[in-house]
Design a protein that fits this description.
alpha/beta; Rossmann fold; 3-stranded parallel β-sheet
Length: 92
């Protein structure tokens, strides 16, 4: 099984390493160099009807992360008819 992955990472070395590892397992990876670009990429894919299977977020400051999660969570709710629902997001 392969996945279509969005990687939010600003460090070029980390980007290259992640892509190399993920490509080894035949996953496709789109890179966003920051959280705002990741949200833009997410929105664009949803608009195309091809959302990412996985979104990997690497060390984004919590204030930016919380703002973007609110945006993504609202978009997810709208797509899945879950207006007003609340979910807990866990990150490692």
């Amino acid at each position: 099984m392969t996945f279509d992955i969005l990687l939010a990472e600003d460090n070029l070395v980390n980007q290259n390493l992640a892509v190399k590892i993920l490509a080894k397992y035949r996953h496709t990876v789109e890179i966003a160099e920051n959280g705002s670009l990741a949200v833009d990429a997410f929105r664009a894919r949803v608009a195309q009807g091809k959302p990412f299977d996985i979104i990997l977020v690497c060390r984004i400051p919590s204030t930016i992360l919380n703002q973007n999660l609110t945006c993504l969570d609202g978009r997810f709710d709208a797509l899945h008819g879950q207006h007003g629902s609340h979910r807990t997001h866990s990150f490692v």
